[in-house]
Design a protein that fits this description.
347 residues, alpha/beta, Alpha-Beta Plaits, eight-stranded parallel beta barrel, 20% strand, binds phosphoenolpyruvate, binds manganese (II) ion
């Protein structure tokens, strides 16, 4: 930590701050400048730096406190410099293969989910997505089918040899949803629901952690750290667009965060171009761009008849559009020395 004292701080003021730091377990190295003094604090690896910085900022004689190290440890790239692979029912996310996940925004009917699964699996998707518990901005909007929806999703995935990713919103339902899912999705609105993060941290299945729509990279990685600290390091990060000022798209898909997150963390990173753009015509180009940016997978909304979808129809690809996307995705993956992961009968 680096503590910058205010101009005019006396030697006594510096001593007082240093004493506080010593009591916390730090060693201090003051540097006295002509107008300003800075204090370097080192040697306390296990102290909560966030908390210490907050205390020091309360001193009127302190101008600024800078944290030098990263506030997250378990998910930091340094913890696994080679990068980690998260296996979703045996499917590796984070290896050389780019994993395609597809399915409707929300599970509506058996017919809808089976038709979607049949088509997207034939096209090359390995993981079926679909919400049975839907976070809705309005309490009057459709909230999802709940358990019957989970049953349909699981049955459709099993029928076509796919795995399941689906959202859990309630810490009390983590076990229930976990009985049907191969990966638990934490939605953008819940990225900072710390009780939910701790609960999925106790689960023994992978977690797809969406980026909060106004979360900084560091906040997103600290949310992942919550899950890891609770005991579950099988985490896949998902960029899904952030709030911005322009309304031409629903969100601003931040593709620069893909290489940035991969540099800062060993966790795999996937991209959701559907929530990320909110517009069907933007989904294919941004899917290709996401692969070029180094995404380890894509999660895409697909529906046999998006114009009649209960939710998110405007950003949902028709099944034929998803079929057309996959060969293009293969070309882009090839161009950067990767491949689209194909179904493996022995997996
Ligand atoms: C979704 O995947 O349909 C969804 C609601 O995602 P997000 O939490 O990113 O909005
Ligand atoms: Mn959706």
């Amino acid at each position: 930590m680096i503590i910058v004292m205010r101009s005019g701080a006396t030697r006594e003021d510096v001593d007082e701050v240093s004493k506080h730091l010593h009591e916390l377990g730090f060693q201090t190295r003051p540097i006295f400048g002509v107008t300003k003094t800075i204090v370097g604090a080192v040697g306390a690896p296990d102290v909560d730096k966030f908390g210490a910085a907050e205390q020091l900022r309360a001193y009127e004689t302190v101008e600024e406190v800078h944290l030098v190290g990263k506030p997250y440890k378990l998910v930091a790239r340094e913890a696994h410099p080679e990068g980690s692979i998260v296996r979703v029912g045996g499917i590796p996310i984070g290896g050389p293969g780019v994993v395609m996940m597809a399915g409707p925004c929300t599970i509506e009917t058996e017919e809808q989910v089976f038709a979607t699964a049949e088509s997207v699996s034939r096209a090359g998707a390995l993981i079926l997505r679909g919400g049975a518990y839907k976070p809705s901005t309005s309490p009057y909007s459709f909230q999802g089918l709940g358990v019957p929806g989970l049953e349909m999703l699981r049955a459709a995935a099993d029928r076509y040899g796919m795995k399941v990713v689906t959202e859990v919103m309630d810490p009390r339902k983590v076990d229930l949803v976990g009985q049907y899912a191969d990966m638990l999705q934490i939605g953008t609105r819940n990225m900072q629901n710390y009780d939910l993060l701790k609960e999925v941290g106790l689960a023994r299945i992978p977690v797809l952690l969406k980026r909060g729509m106004s979360a900084k990279l560091e906040e997103w990685l600290l949310a992942a750290e919550y899950i890891a600290a609770a005991g579950n390091e099988q985490i896949v990060l998902c960029e899904r667009g952030i709030r911005s000022y322009d309304s031409f798209a629903r969100n601003t898909l931040d593709l620069a965060v893909v290489p940035a997150a991969k540099a800062a963390s060993h966790l795999p990173v996937v991209v959701d171009p559907s929530q990320g753009t909110g517009r069907r015509n933007l989904v294919t180009p941004m899917s290709l761009a996401a692969i070029a940016a180094g995404a380890d997978g894509l999660i895409i909304e697909v529906h046999p008849n998006p114009d009649h979808a209960i939710k998110d129809g405007a950003q949902t690809l028709r099944t034929d559009q998803f079929e057309a996307l996959v060969p293009q995705a293969k070309q882009v993956a090839l161009a950067i020395g990767r491949e689209i992961l194909a179904p493996d009968p022995v997996r």
